[in-house]
Task: structure prediction
Amino acid sequence: MSDGMRVDLSALDEVIKKLWTLLDDMDKAGETSRYRTDIPLDAFGNGCMFLEAGDLFNAHKETKGDLEGAIKGLHGLIEKFGKSTSKVKDKYTEQEYANKTQMGGGPGDSSGKWDKK
Result:
């Protein structure tokens, strides 16, 4: 007998859709960080006039790498959570179908299972 707990499958669907949307957004952020944040060394100044140009360039390059790594990690986490949520939703859907099938369709069923005695 059920303890009255129910799973809202439509809410799980909504979570899954939002996770996939977020994953698409993370893909865009990853592309931006990878390809649209390059700054050439000469943009930091000429080494003769600005001695720290090389240091700034290297700091930028390191920070860019850190950002790309963070986005990649988040992407993996979101993808893993999305897949897990999809599997959970599928299991609940299967169980709900099995429960309905075992009960013979519920009240009003012609099998007589639901007749009061």
Summary: The chain has a mean pLDDT of 83. The helical segments are 9-35, 53-102. Residues 10-96 form one domain.
